[in-house]
Amino acid sequence: MANTSKDFLFVLIKSLSKSEKRQFKLYVNRIGMNTDAKFLQLFELLDKMNDYNEEKILKSNIVTKVQLSNLKAHLYKQILVSLRLNPTLQNIRIQIREQIDFATILYQKGLYKQSLKLLEKAKTMALEHEEKNIAYEIVEFEKVIESQYITRSISGRADELSILAKDLSRQNVVTSKLSNLSLQLYGYLLKHGYAKSDEEMKQITQYYSDRMPEFDFEELGFREKLWLYKANLWYSFLIQDFLGCFKYASKWVELFYEYPSMIQINPIWFIKGSNYLLESLYLVKHQTYFKEALVRFEDTLTHKGFPKNENILSQEFLTLYNSKLNLHFLKGDFEGGLYLVDEILTQLDLFNEQIDEHHHMVFYYKIASLYFGIGDNLQCIVYLNKIISNRNLEMREDLMCFARVLNLVAHYEAREDEQLDKLIRDTYQFLIKMNDLHEVQREMIRFLKNLGTIYPHELKDAFITLHAKLKTFENHPYEKRAFLYLDIISWLESKIYNKPVAHIVQEKALKVNR
Predict the structure, then answer these.
(1) What average pLDDT does range 110-132 have in this prediction?
(2) With contact defined as beta carbons under 8 Å apart, do 135 and 98 qualify?
(3) Are 242 and 280 in contact (CB under 8 A)?
């Protein structure tokens, strides 16, 4: 029996809205002979299922086992064709592609002049909306037609098309190099997190410098600038230059407000840019700008012209709820953020197919941090275990490492002493395996390991000693990243001054946040 999450056809059908299902049936029944088509019967059967069940399909006698694969492939294609015709799913790229398809049909019929007219219209649309790859494709098609059908002075037309093709090719090469660099840096960030040493910093900087193409900024269009800001943003994150992150995330978002039509064409990139702007403001602890950016983002999302579909809604959810959690962390208002937990879990279930495993784990860590902040260590451990039990080591390793360190502290706080020794050994071995054992972690593990030898009346002095050691790493270029995941300094201060962690964080927020 196939797994629901792996059966693409079943997942696609379950993603359809009522209106999309109605349109599909109308599309299929446009020809009377399709009324009893097997693929329509299969569609209706799958639509009624709560879980994919191949055995039930075969028992329905709609199709034999040998035919099932081909019938599913045919149904999948028909659903996509139907969705392509849906006006609510139309975007500028589909409209341009449609014009190219029509032009191709006219060309094949030998109607060159009509084909060129449609291509000119499509090319204008593509250039107006910064779709330069498609524009280049159109120009190349025009060159093919012009070589067979002369509509004007061939020399002038040839020069015009050649110059435009050359310009578009040059711009597309710059874009390709910037997008490649951006994607590689982003992939490194997801896999390894921030730079951990001088050697790693040099490697990242060298990689960034070697692959940054030469360009004249004044000649860059929207698309080239967008990829440039993305590449610089990932580089800034990797070297922990959070002011740089703020700078380039701001440029990214302001670029969309400078070209408002691009928000409708590229809503996902607008949402992503807003997400990183809010995240960078969280990292530099600028609460005032954070609130302003969040309000502006929410206002843009609610604008009547902002597009909506499952993908966009899932990305809106990720940015909004991640930012709402971060705002509570900035204020030290852990208890006030608990209402978000049920909403997040509901949305994660709703958008399960659209949201990757990495983002699930990030939310689990943040929820665990909320519970740790209010002193509910058992609930904290529950959510950390969702991360620790994940065997997919392709996800962000630094998140997995710090989940284990927080898990140790939560077990200590929950007085789960019988598991502590084993957890310390397991965590130590995992960090070594991941090559992620830094001084902050070493000191934490050493402290927890020696707790059994410390008398109760000596405990406060031990906390003070550890606090003094860790404070020296608070502004260290590589060690400071530990405090982004786990505010161990505030935890120690809560022990030293006998105050809840939340109170310590709130007092700091009044002094640090701007």
Answers:
(1) 90
(2) no
(3) yes
